[in-house]
Amino acid sequence: QLNPANGCQRCVVALSTDSWSDNDGVSCDDGVFCNGKDTCSGGSCRASDVNPCPSDGFFCTGNEICDEYSDSCLHTGDPCAGGDGNFCNGTETCNETTDECDSSGNPCPDDGLFCNGTESCDEENDVCAESSNPCPDDGLFCTGTEFCDEEADACEATGFPCTGEDQCIEEEDQCCLPDVPATELVCNDDGDVEAYDSCGKLLLVEDCVAADENGVCDDGVCGCAPGFTGEECTGCVVYVNGTLGDYAAADGATWVTAFEHVQAGLDAAAEGGCEVWVAAGTYLPQGEGSGEPDTDTEPAASDRTATIALQSGVALYGGFVGDEIARSQRNVEDNETILSGDIDGDEDLAGNAYHVVTGVNGATIDGFTITMGNADGDPYERQSIGGGMLNVGASPTVNDCSFKSNAAAEFGGGMFNLDGSSPVVTNCLFEANTAGVYGGGMCNQLNSSVTLADCIFQDNEAAEMGGAIYADSESIVNANDCEFTSNAAALGGGLVVQSVTTGESEFVNCIFEGNTADLGGGVFIENTSAFLIGCSISTNTAMDYGGGMWVERADITLTDCELRSNIAQVGGGMVQLGGSASLTNCIIRDNTTEMEGGGIFGKGFQLGLTNCTLEANASEREGGALAFEDASLVMTNCIVWGNTAPQNPQMGLHSPTELSITYSDIQGGFEGEGNIDERPLFVGTTLYLSSESPCIDTGLNSAVPAEITTDLDGNPRIVDGIDDGEARVDMGAYEFQP
């Protein structure tokens, strides 16, 4: 029997009848779960030493704990759930295998955007932060401003920050143009010219000649003291200013004491080989005995032989205001200086001086308008030639002059060159001059060869030959970059060159446009040889033969030239009778004729055409492009297409004409090696070959003259146009450039 008050005691009569015996070894419960399984010992309920909630062997459930309240064993839970307190190593997770807490890693991965920089972890604030601009200033001014290009994931720069001619100065962080004056030129205390450049640097612009050596600095210009000129102020100057009037004190030594008349200045300058500077105004030739300011002040109205006679070794300059200290200060356009033959002052040619100016060897005339000369006097006294300027055995230098409205009864309204005269004429205008026979603008005869550069001949007229220029009797014309427009004559509206057996005339980059004549609207060449290079002969008209050119018993060479839109009854572009013509890299286009040979008409001559294009020429009878009789034609690498005529629209070739036509594109076909009959496929309305043209790489290289290395446009002449590894010339004037 158990003790009702103590389950660890029982009644064992055999042991005692009046006391409870220990009931050791039996289970008991002391009411506390967490001290484990209880056992009676010594009559009391005693707790065991065994934890009722031992470890379950799983790290990730946490620690096992005894919950007295629920009389159960509990887990503390995920030991990694609370993290390690470090934001920047990411989220911790429990690893049962290793019995450890693992971190997820960087919680701030790249967001894929280059331009917000690299993402980083901010431990202090437990946030992900973006870095600063990934494209900071590189510190170099001249690369421009740096910026971020998201599309390219790269840092770029705006590039060179300067505009115009400015240079970038890295050391100064500025754009400017060093060593080029940007401020007003001024004279410094040393008498030299200085200015600042845009970089702020003071420049010595010009080191003037010292004052004790006749140098002067005035208003930012280096010059010379009155009476002196030249780089070292060692030359002499005589001054002319017609606005001051004639007075006894005039000696030409200064602008203040300038001569009134040009001839007085020239005569005074001849003594020392001086320059003559002439202020703007109108000046007349002086009669016999004039030139002294205290004697004759005006030319005799009846003395038509009066002329402004240039002096050997003297340079005559116009275009001055009348206060300059350096020739560079003059302005020819603003300060027109006129030498007029209107000695009677009635503004009419009748009664004017026969020659406004007469030339001499070693003289220079520069910056004048020469006008109103009228050479209509005695031919035996040479009074019917050279109304504007007469050169007889004289070779002056003529620069920046205008010859306007001069006349000659016979030859050379503007200028006449005779007996071995060889003037050099540069940047001059010949306008509205007339001649009763030859050379409205200029006439050259008897071994007189003129050299022209950058000159314009317009609206000049000759009754018989050479509206602009006439040259014969071993007289050669060499012209570079000149224009002949709207001139007229019976023969050779623009130009006549004939009867030269020694030497050849040459015309380079010249324009003959809108000239008219009966024969040879633009150019008339006879009994001589001539070269035309890079010239344009267009919109000229001949009432009869040769709208662009008339060539008779002459040998001519045309290279890189155009004959375009010329008109004639026969031979719209050109007529050649006898002699020979060689054309290379030329265009003959849009010329028209009422009868034969819209492009070229020829008889009894030899014609060579190499790499030429003849297109859209028209004849109302025969031979839209070419019409020949008793001629020899060698054509290679050419295109003849789109020409029109009722008969033989491309070529009207009459026997006995010797023909060799090869490697050419002939509309309608023509028998010969390498010839084709295919549309040339030009680009639009131009004559350039399109990439599909059958004329590309179909010519004959050996036919191209050795000296010809470029086409009409200046591009390489022989190239590989179809990319087959072989450079082969094209047909036509233009080479296809792949």
Topology, number of strands: 71
The structural class is mainly beta
Enumerate the spans where pLDDT stays under 50 for 5 or more consecutive residues: 288-297
Helical content stands at under 10%
Shape: elongated
Q: Compute the gyration radius: what is it?
A: 52 Å
Number of helices: 1
| Content of β-strand | 35-45%
Q: Gap between N and C termini, in Å? A: 125 Å
Q: Overall mean pLDDT score?
A: 91
Biggest sheet: strands, sense, closure?
27 strands, mixed
Report on the architecture of this protein.
The chain has 738 residues and is mainly β. The chain is built from 1 helix and 71 strands. It has a 27-stranded mixed sheet that branches. Strands 25-28-31-35-39-43-47-50-54-57-60-64-68-71 form a 14-stranded parallel sheet, with no helix packed on it. A 4-stranded parallel sheet has the order 32-36-40-44, with no helix packed on it. The longest helix has 9 residues, at 262-270.
